[in-house]
Amino acid sequence: MSKRTQLYFPEELLQRVKEEAEKEGTSMAEVVRVAVMEYLERKKRVDWDKDPVWSLIGRVESDRGDLSSKHDHYLYEVEGK
């Protein structure tokens, strides 16, 4: 079910939306809906910069000097490149 709403856009942005709709052969409303859905999907993705794993850097030591280049080998017994 769709619900009608009213949005205000700066003229330049509105013109860009209009041009995109014409180029795609669709309505301005559809361009806005797709853009909002894509924006909301991106917001759901993990923000890796805030991942707590980064707090481990420098806190772990190993007697193996090649962990960064051969981590797949040690974790999964897979040869790395």
Spell out the key features of this protein:
mainly alpha; single chain; 3 helices
Q: How would you describe the overall organization of this protein?
A:
The structure is a single chain. The protein has 81 residues and is mostly helical. It has a domain at 11-44. The protein is built from three helices and no strands. It has helices spanning 11-24, 28-44, 67-76. Helix 1 (11-24) packs across helix 2. The longest helix has 17 residues, at 28-44. It starts with 10 loop residues before the first helix and ends in a 5-residue tail after the last helix.
Number of strands: 0
Overall pLDDT, averaged? 87
| Strand percentage | under 5%
Number of helices, where a helix is a run of at least 4 consecutive DSSP H or I residues:
3
Outline type: elongated
* Radius of gyration (Å): 24 Å
